[in-house]
Design brief:
CATH topology: Rossmann fold
Shape: globular
CATH class: Alpha Beta
Oligomer: single chain
Number of strands: 6
CATH architecture: 3-Layer(aba) Sandwich
Distance between the termini: 49 Å
Helix content: 25-40%
Structural class: alpha/beta
Low-confidence stretches: none
Mean pLDDT: 85
Strand content: 25-35%
Length: 95
Amino acid sequence: MQNPKTNFKNRDAIIYDDVAASGATIETVFNLVSETDPHNVYIALPHLMTENGIERICNLGADEVITTDSLESGKNYKKFTELPTIPLFSEYIKN
């Protein structure tokens, strides 16, 4: 089911969720966005909770999955970017 007010045709879409365990919500949104023929689809998640969730999200076909190194890792997947959190936290603690 497509939302008639949302059209990403030839546009970039960023799907954001603060925490993903199973990846089901991201998958639902990805499928809805993909129906509108976007130029690129990026998935941004600060925390990926489980290996199954990582696998599910990384196999959707997004142009890139961006997350942090705070929990599980998906380094074995193509188009997966893991941003380091340790420098950020250590700088915050120092100040």
